Amino acid sequence: MGWTDILRFFRGPFFTVSLIIFVGGMAYRLFRIILLGWPRDRVESRGSKAVGIVKTYLKGLAFFPFIPWVRRTFGKNALTYIAGGLFHLSLFLVIFFGTPHMLVWKSLLGFGWPTLPVPAADWLSAIGIISLLMLLINRLTHPVLRLITKSPVWLNWTLVFLPFVTGYAMTHHLLFRYEALFSLHMITVDILLIWIPLSRISHFLFYFFSRTIHGAQAGKRAVNP
């Protein structure tokens, strides 16, 4: 079996299975969250929950969440905050607005959208890789983070890092033949899709729930979310 056969397998049947596991697993986690419901509010509100929710979403749109003074956490661990924000931003933009990835979305959804210029997506990928490396170094050197970091965290980091670095190497034809790099990239992506519903990486699914609840509670107390 050559690299062409391996690539055909991981782009075809295995990618389909990985996608089914990903969608099914995330749907199951979402269903469980919905079943938790919203607890009955027994305390009189001092403000409007709806206003609080609107404010928190507007703040999320108006300011990138990694700007330190937005959440006043710069003094605690600036490196983690900024590197983590840059990583999430680059990941989002590359996955949804990188041309190769948009074409995958188009094949799945039946429609596409404008994408970033290749140099911009390339720089964003590099920023994502550097941010992940900085987060790794910080965890290895920070006494508290090193103490609380267990095997699942290292596994999460590895499974997120590998698609980034293999995709970047594939784009720039580094180290191995293009077919080999493409196969390695697809392998890492497929494994990551399977792993996400089983891990804390699935936290992105709960972003809207947490922001809505946070905004509602802030609005109820008539404070800024």
Q: Which properties best describe this structure?
A:
single chain, 0% strand, 2 domains, mainly alpha, globular
Topology:
Blueprint lengths: L2 H9 L1 H24 L12 H14 L5 H4 L2 H24 L1 H11 L8 H24 L1 H6 L2 H22 L5 H18 L11 H14 L5
What would you say this structure looks like, in words?
With 225 residues, the protein is an all-alpha fold. It folds into two domains: 1-36 and 173-225, no CATH class; 71-149, no CATH class. It has eleven helices and no strands. It has helices at residues 3-11, 13-36, 49-62, 68-71, 74-97, 99-109, 118-141, 143-148, 151-172, 178-195, 207-220. The longest helix is centred in the N-terminal third of the chain and has 24 residues, at 13-36. The radius of gyration is 20 Å and the shape is globular. The termini are far apart. 19% of the residues are buried. The model has no long low-confidence stretch (mean pLDDT 79).
Sum this structure up briefly.
The protein has 225 residues and is mostly helical. It has helices at residues 3-11, 13-36, 49-62, 68-71, 74-97, 99-109, 118-141, 143-148, 151-172, 178-195, 207-220.
Please state roughly what percent of the residues sit in beta strands, choosing from under 5%, 5-15%, 15-25%, 25-35%, 35-45% or over 45%: under 5%
Largest sheet: none
Number of domains: 2
* Helix coverage percent: over 70%
Work out the helix count: 11
Intertermini distance: 56 Å
Total beta-strand segments: 0
Cα-atom radius of gyration: 20 Å
